[in-house]
Amino acid sequence: VAISQLIVNSLILGSIYSLLALGFTMVYGILKLINFAHGAVFMVGGYAGYVLTSNLGWHMAWSLPVVFVLCGLIGIGVERVAFRPLRDAPMLNMLITSIGVAIVLQNLIALIFGADARSITQGGIREGLLFFGARITVIQIVIVILTVGLMVALSVFLKFTRLGKATRATSEDRELAAVRGISTDRVIAYIFFISSAFGGVGGFLVGLDQTISPPMGIGVGIKGFVAAIVGGIGNPYGAMLGGVLLGVFETLSIWYFPAGYKDGVAFLLLIILLLFIPGGFIEGFAKLKHLVRKKLWSTSFTS
Amino acid sequence: MLTMLRRCRIATTFLLAFLLLGLLFSCSQERQSFKIGCITPLSGDYHQYGDRVRKGADLALEEINAAGGVDGKKLEMVYEDDQLNAKLGVNAINKLITVDKVPVILGAFGSSVTLAVAPIAEKNKVVLITSSSTADSIKDAGEYIFRNVPTNQKQGADQAQFAYDELGARKAGILYINNDYGTTLRDSFIGKFRQLGGEITSEDAHNEKNTDFRTVLQKAAAKAPDVWYVPSHDHETGLLLKQAKELGIKIPVVGCDGSITKTLIEVAQDAAEGSVYSSFGWNQEFEDKFKRKYNENPDAYAATTYDAVYIIAEAIRKGGYTGPGIQKAMLQIKDFRGATGVTTFDQFGEVSKPYHQFIVRNGAFELYKK
């Protein structure tokens, strides 16, 4: 097996983690809330895709944007109903509420669809395409490309649009942003839309690649959350990096160590990493840049 | 002083009245049914197993009760959900023993849960009979612990023999689930396969609820085994088969009884074709009855559970509705004829039954024939 296969495997895993990490990190950035309902929205995305493709017979390409919008709206709804009334309450209250929302969503889906694992894959299972010596299925290519595309779109949105700038301002200082005339309620609603839409699309993609079941968001949700922390929580670019890194660590630990220790080895590596850069990747980069600049400056000064 | 006395008297009268009433009530409320407990996963990731257990048990109960019940009383099943989780299993058995006061419990489904609840059953002298847990250590779990399925020791060895003789495999790789069930099957397969002269190329674990097998599949495939032995659950095995096909890996898979459910077919679809699993057979009579009631095919768990309920009914009939009575009666059960063949318990509460091989053909499990 070529190295290219390991890279492909890491990328597939990492893409999903990144999509989820983005949702965690954006909501945290703006509300300082660890949104445990995020994994459940991911799962709802999987089931929404199941209804569209398997029950209504839609093509995947048409279902994806619908799942995106639908899960985004669910995100806005959850924020409106469960989080907005608690905006000024202690953070712990919101945290508990988010766990509650997760449990409600998970059981609701189990009630409607049953607890069985289901498959969205249609027309049988085909061998993957050969790509630089690595096997990858069409769905997996879609996963990687779509993730990269969504991330680029998000970066552009945050950097260049008015709303994106308002978002960054709000996450830096909510009160000051409000004073400057930014409608923070609206910004927060948009953030929930984006984060839930990304999560939902992730759930649909995982459903297409693997299976859907009501608890599917729990394990992946934790991984996405970890990826967000490793990247430096609150920072979207960090989340992307963190997700890919976690994917790489997992794949490498399966390859080089007994496979049963996969999570143990991956998390150990992450703990070690965090010991050296407690603020996550982005802070690490900032420090490095600072260090290099200082060094350059001092050398140029003395010489 | 007088008022105090009078108050006391009134209070005592009331108390007596209540006591009498209670006595009357309890007399008129004489037991209408014999309750049996059942611990099985009814929700969560493994609820599909509990569904089979419940369907098998309900079919048996319906027949027994329609035929007049046990000693003129109806049998009633109290289901408790363990989600295949040892902690929830312990809660369930405590509830069944203290609240429902059942002297006999069917379950638990998974070996890890059965091993966790067995000491509690043993301590309270409540008979525990499992129709699905196959871990070897259950043999020594206690006098009150029975099962009407053979051990993993036998199952793994039978599959090793099958892979060596029927499939002509000389090199085998193992992809096992990391729990009591998976590790005992792994060990018994390896023991027998090596004894036959075969070689084990790799042993790789995966955890419960794992969904990504791509890297571990490629790692194990690189050792070029003739066959893979996969002692795991249905969802996991299904994903493993699917991803192996996507990766272009064509190593035949031999699995275990935990994977024979419709979930495996749903998940793996055509990637499951040709994979072989060990389980028990059942007779045509049971299959017909099951199909008539549920309009679907039975599986091994439904069949063994169906038998277990009949065995419990027989034991209550012979030993009375108490834990020790049922325990003694169970040990005396000889040549009980059920859907899965003949059952006789040895002194450890174990049975000896043959395993059969089932192969997936056209999306259904069929008895393997060469």
Secondary structure tally: strands of chain B:
14
Approximately how much helix is present in the residues of chain B? 40-55%
Q: What ranges of chain B have pLDDT less than 50 throughout 5 or more consecutive residues?
A: none
Strand content of chain A: under 5%
Strand order of the largest sheet of chain A: 1-2
Query: Strand-and-helix sequence of chain A, N→C?
Result: HHHHEEHHHHHHHH
- Count the DSSP helices of chain B: 12
> Which H/E pattern describes the elements of chain B?
HEHEHEHEEHEHEHEHEHEHHHEEEE
* Largest sheet, strands/sense/barrel of chain B: 7 strands, mixed
Describe this structure in words.
The complex is a heterodimer of chains A (303) and B (370). With 303 residues, chain A is an all-alpha fold. The longest helix of chain A is centred in the N-terminal third of the chain and has 29 residues, at 3-31. A two-stranded antiparallel ribbon of chain A has the order 1-2. Chain A has helices at residues 3-31, 38-55, 60-83, 91-113, 138-160, 162-172, 174-179, 184-209, 216-231, 236-256, 262-276, 281-302; strands spanning 129-131, 134-136. Chain A has twelve helices and two strands. In chain A, strand 1 and strand 2 form a beta hairpin. With 370 residues, chain B is α/β, with parallel strands linked by helices. Helices cover 47% and strands 18% of the residues of chain B. Chain B has twelve helices and 14 strands. In chain B, helix 4 (111-123) links the parallel strand 3 (104-106) and strand 4. Chain B is elongated, with a radius of gyration of 24 Å. The interface between A and B is large, with 37 and 35 residues.
